[in-house]
Amino acid sequence: MSTEPGSAAGPTEPGSAGGSTEPGPAGADQPLPDPGSVDWSELEGGVLDELILGTPREFTRDELVEAAGLDPEESGRLWQALGFPDSDPQERVFTRADLHAARKVTTLSQDWLPDPSAREAVARAIAQSLSRLAEWQIGMLAQMAAAQVGELTPRAAAQLAAQVLPELEELQSYVWRRHLAATAARWTAGAQRSDAQHIAADTWPLAVGFADMVGFTRTTRRRSMDELGEMIERFGAVTNEVIANGRGRVIKTVGDEVLYVTEHPADAAAIALGLRDRVRGEPSLPPLRIGIANGMVLARYGDVYGEVVNVAARLTSEARPDTVLVDREMHEALRDDPRFDLRRIATLHTRGYSHLRAWALRGARER
């Protein structure tokens, strides 16, 4: 390539002769400007973009790849794994923060993640979590801006972004570290109970529960968009509270369904009954049907996989409204626990399982 970042034909490469020291990611060494320092009377479309990214878009893909020492083909796959479409190699779409991140990828590739497929999987996992967070945050900022000025204008959005985004970024880092510490503690405790083979394979004994709102499609037809939004928010708030208080973890919420896991079967059962009872007292929410299975689970990139997950999903689809079904392994783990009542039901014939044994779970006081 004849043109390098920093040559007369392109922008100066960060850290090169004649250029400034390479900044860190946006929000660290490149904080968002104070709202009072921006000339809002000359606001252009790129102002909000630059406020969020921290630095202007000044590098082409080819310049970024060469300066960071990345393989061109892999860099394209990583960019797509992050959820972004492929760009014109000569279009200036990348910032100094992108270059900083690309160099970090190079270092990580050499020292920690030599397998390209593992790097792409990590990129996908991070992107799937953060893209949902970004969608929510931009929607929240839009609502805040509209409430303050009566309508969402580019100026209002940019002013609000300059004020709020640095605080959100700091808060995100704090929450991430708290979850990192909690996960590390769980991992250490789990490693002490599991053998080296299971640890190396990311397989762990877990109870997996699905909780699904009954008749969600019919319910959405009868509610306005505002009412639907309030229902989803309430469902998320209730399920997160009950699951967290029950020593469980929310793996994901997809529309009308939440997937959670616990280390101990009894905790999963108590959470299921707690969810059922709590939702009974929520007029805005339809009843739940819940399925729980117990066994070895593949835990990878923030999600869970395996037959246990599939069985829990099938039990949920077969459960009646306001009921909880558990599999044989859950029954074995709970049958001597005086807090629970288990009643065998007819063998289920469901997709993928022609003879699935199941038990209805109730609290001991419901006998």
UniProtKB/TrEMBL annotation:
This is Adenylate cyclase. Residues 207-316 form the Guanylate cyclase domain. It holds the Pfam family Guanylate_cyc. Residues 1-41 are annotated as: Disordered. One of its GO terms (biological process) is intracellular signal transduction. It comes from the Bacteria. Coiled coil: none annotated. It comes from Pseudonocardia ammonioxydans. One of its GO terms (molecular function) is adenylate cyclase activity. Belongs to the adenylyl cyclase class-3 family.
